[in-house]
Model the fold of this input.
Amino acid sequence: GFCTNLLLSQTPEHILAQTNNKTEILCELKQEHVGVYWYRWSQEKQNFNFLIFSNPFGKATYGADISQDKFSVHKGSSQTSYSLHISRLHASDNGTYYCSVSQSSQLLLGSGTRLGVVDVLPLPPKTTQAPLSKKPVRCITKSKAADKKGVCSPLVWVPLAISVLVLLLSLVPTAYRLHRLRRRLWLRVHRQ
Done:
């Protein structure tokens, strides 16, 4: 069975590369293993292809019909990092690539890296510059913005409102006592 697991982290999530160029996918293991498997899922062919297995000593085992010149695995500086290098990219390399380790008769997969190979990379959209205005622009610094926000912030007015309410409620018994005292005095004065 296959299952994705937090023991592997794979980067990047997406790669868009140009035909005949090369690319690499990084795989970081959370603990040491006997080696890393690499697979490709082809959406077009709806199949899962075994590409290459690399052990910690750098020995590689290739899948059937997999070119050794095209795919290679390089060990990173740490004992738990591997990178898959793919050269001479072609449209047939499109797919989602997974690094994987074997654990208790299961293959644990990384999160996957979607590779798209195109003849021409799309250009970033051109940004049009706004005409320069002759009026001076007033900038609000972060501290001023924070001060303004601070005045209206619920973190300020909610505790303030609660304290005012508590103060008013504590005045109610005092006001009632004063009212009763005034009434007693008034009654005394009028009895005499």
